[in-house]
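User: Sequence recovery, please. Input:
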């Protein structure tokens, strides 16, 4: 015997929320794949300075997002099917998966908040090391100059956030992408430390918005799934 009245309405509301949840999982998966293959981040984070690899903390977060998006799509499908079939077993499994996923999202959010400054700091330190090697003409033995030029061309910047970076374009113009007017480069081109901060803060901003929207949907779904499960149990008594 199927559910009736308000419980039936909750059934279809839960189905709609799960469909939205499934779409949100697809969006998060798409955004994560975009961040993973975005030219700005890949050009920088695939660099290698001698034996030293660029920091991969950012990619750790991206792989977590890819996993979360894929799991969300599976859980969303499970919730849709469980609601339509009015299956207490599927709805109970769906609720358990939501709780685990919500806990993982909170943990990932805390990890991202704690490490958001460290990610940019690691990349800036990597850039500074390459910059110093390029200035000291060590490019014959390593790829410091190539690493620095990749930063400059990708982020449209020149020099670190210090006095050396300000005067560098005047006597090492080969390190900067703008060679037509060196004085203009000094006064109009942003330093690379600032550009790196903007790059990662912008990415984390998008991730934060997506995480908040998904968290709200998950809370509603947990409530609705339990209400529907109780309604199914009560209707089976009669």
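Assistant: Recovered sequence (238 residues):
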């Amino acid at each position: 015997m199927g559910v009736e009245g308000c419980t039936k309405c909750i059934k279809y509301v839960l189905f709609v929320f799960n469909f939205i949840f499934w779409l949100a999982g697809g969006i998060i998966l798409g955004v994560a794949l975009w961040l993973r293959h975005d030219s700005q981040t890949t050009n920088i984070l695939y660099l290698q300075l001698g034996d030293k690899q660029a920091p991969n903390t950012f990619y750790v977060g991206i792989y977590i997002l890819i996993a979360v998006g894929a799991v969300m799509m599976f859980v969303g499908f499970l919730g849709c099917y469980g609601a339509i079939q009015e299956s207490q077993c599927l709805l109970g499994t769906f609720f358990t998966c939501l709780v685990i996923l919500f806990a993982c999202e909170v943990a990932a959010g805390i990890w991202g908040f704690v490490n958001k400054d460290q990610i940019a700091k690691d990349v800036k330190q990597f850039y500074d090391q390459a910059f110093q090697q390029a200035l000291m003409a060590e490019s014959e033995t390593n790829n410091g100059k190539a690493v620095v030029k990749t930063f400059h061309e990708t982020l449209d910047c020149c020099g670190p956030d210090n006095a050396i970076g300000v005067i560098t374009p005047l006597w090492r113009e080969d390190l900067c992408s703008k060679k037509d007017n060196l004085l203009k480069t000094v006064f109009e081109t942003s330093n690379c430390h600032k550009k790196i901060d903007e790059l990662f803060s912008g990415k984390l901003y998008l991730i934060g918005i997506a995480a908040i929207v998904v968290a709200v949907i998950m809370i509603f779904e947990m409530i609705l799934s339990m209400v529907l499960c109780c309604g199914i149990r009560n209707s089976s008594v009669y």
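The beta strands are 48-49, 52-53.
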